Protein 1
Amino acid sequence: MNVLKILFACRYLLFFPVIQVLTGLALVAIAQQAHGTNERMDDKGRIMHEAMELIRTHALLLPGSMQGVTTEDLRTYVHSLDDYSDYLSAREYAAFLESNISDYFGVQMDIQKKKGVITLFPFRGGAAEKSGIRPGDELMAVDGSPVYGKSVFVVGSQIRGAEGGAVQLTIRSGGRIPRTLTLRRQRAHYESVSLRIATSAYYIQITRFIEGTDNLLSGFVTEMRDASKTIVIDLRGNQGGSLYAARQCADLFLEKGVLLYTLRYRDRVEQVYAEQPQATGASILLIQDENTASAAEVFIAALTRNGRARSAGHKTYGKGMAQRFFSLSNGSALLLTYAEIITPDNFSYHGIGIEPDITLPEDLATMDFNQDAALSKLFDFVNLKHK
């Protein structure tokens, strides 16, 4: 689900012709003022040059021309590259970085932006879900400030803050009238992976791929001593996260040397392979839905397209682009899409999604599989043997 821009103040410099003889003092004053203006122009020009060089070097897609682009146009220009590239001013980037330090807290949800709309995906059991927010709800304002035109990184930094502080979110569900909710930021011990050992299966939920997800998953795999049990990995609502973490997780279930995915850069391709021995040979069933995105899709494709697992559910979101931040010398930053992600069987799924091997009916697609009876119904439907 790809990662990390926003309101860039427009300033216009006006120049007036000097049409009369200036006195010495006036000339000095004008010269000093012009010197300051030139310095500002030099700064803008330098940052623009840095940004353009980064875009020319790293961006996957390019518009036809860069002629006439000014500093004020930079954000709009970057937005024109694709749905995920963005620009953060120095203030915005600093706020984003600050909001990610350990003493900043949130309301336990992911946010995503597509076609200008920011949508919410609450973590199961978190504050956002308990407040009534549902996956796919549209975020319209934070503390009364509209989010239209803002990056998800800036909006995220507005939502996060000091523990115990309140934040107001104006949201809309479907076509309903917007409503405003007040949530308290809280400390929460969050694990991206959970395991339940059921009678007929090992049921794993991966809510997102972050640093340490692979270590947690690897630890759980060592507990799976009964090879006759199916491993069910639930990726519903997983918005992705770290491509590297997803790669390491997929590596656990595939033989060393198997192709995981291909990165298509603007001028080359890079193939990424499994690098460690397969940790388990048990059969695997993946559960996905329309909110399974980004790194989670990479994980699914690596296993299913290599014949290592079957998938059930609904077609995934379809985000097959990789992004990263590039900082500029004035403290601002570009977020650029630098590569397209291709499945092991050479399928480009960006904007399309990945179809499941088995489409589940709505009751099963939304069922809580934390109960043995629910897993039995799932297995019956997908014709898996279970004990």
Note: The chain is about 25% helix and 25% strand.
Protein 2
Amino acid sequence: MREIRNRKDGRVGFRVRVQPSASVTKLLGWNAAGELRVSVAAPPREGAANRELVRAFSRFLSLPKGEVAIEAGERSRTKTVSVPGGMEKKLMELPEI
């Protein structure tokens, strides 16, 4: 079940489960908990994994990096990410895993 929420500020929020230090950066798909699983090819040190996560969403959604925000969980593997409204369809295209 995909949990994508429209917010009052016009942005879309969703939960992300990050796997740092992977061999490649890849958006894997939605897990049973409603989180989008993402592997990132960066270690969880000094914000490197967070920067790679923002870069991955920026590429996938064709957005500037400044439009992708980590709202909560900067020091956790489970994060809340937001992007501009209108991105729901592209996010829903990712498979369930």
Note: The mean pLDDT is 96.
Protein 3
Amino acid sequence: MKRFLVALAGVLSALYLLNPTLGLFELLPDNIPFVGNIDEATATMVLLGALRYFGWDVTNLFMKKTAIDFGKKE
């Protein structure tokens, strides 16, 4: 049941981010200063959390990777 609810939350957040209603339905209109994009940020966090729950951790996709140092002595 938990897997189903996490998957449902992920699908709903992905649909919200795809914006199939062309902006006719939004929880917070984007033209409100400072808070207009909070609903999209929340949907993004829910989608990333659902993906991480199922083993797809895309949060470190753009992290800086350390270079291999061949002169380093351990």
Note: Residues 2-18 form the longest helix (17 residues).
